[in-house]
Design brief:
The protein starts with 8 loop residues before the first helix and ends with a strand. Strands 3-4-5-2-1-6 form a six-stranded mixed beta sheet. The chain has four helices and six strands, in the order αββαβββααβ. It is α+β, with helices and mostly antiparallel strands. β3 (about 75) and β4 form a beta hairpin.
């Protein structure tokens, strides 16, 4: 937890978006899950240009969360680098290579028809 203050999903979301921006993530999409599911408050979907960049962004993000908020995130897929899932509890982060992201189309699954996600 953050020293002297309550960790909110918004503070965590802000730091995750900042980390992805610092590491040159592409096509970052933020989806508000509040009231839709219990898996978390927000979902972030982003792309990296290569397996190396995807894995590196995931590693840096989890390190930053551990350093700043004092907890370890659950991570799947970092060794392969095609699709990395990072579960921070309140914010679920998916980092894809573009081809893999196009194949799974997670945005379409979580967004109502005719709407678009807020891109950052």
């Amino acid at each position: 937890m953050m020293a002297g203050s309550q960790l909110t999903s918004e503070k965590l979301l802000e730091r995750i978006l900042s980390s992805l921006n610092d590491d040159k993530a592409e096509d970052v999409v933020q989806i508000d899950l509040r009231g839709k599911t219990e898996i978390g408050d927000y979902m972030i979907i982003a792309s990296g240009r290569s397996t190396r960049q995807v894995s590196s962004m995931a590693e840096k993000l989890t390190d930053r969360i551990k350093q700043e908020f004092g907890f370890t995130s659950k991570v799947e897929g970092k060794d392969t680098g095609d699709w990395v899932l990072i579960d921070t509890g309140d914010v679920v982060v998916h980092i894809f290579r573009p081809e893999v992201r196009e194949f799974y189309q997670l945005e379409k699954m979580w967004l109502p028809q005719g709407s678009s996600a807020s891109a950052n």
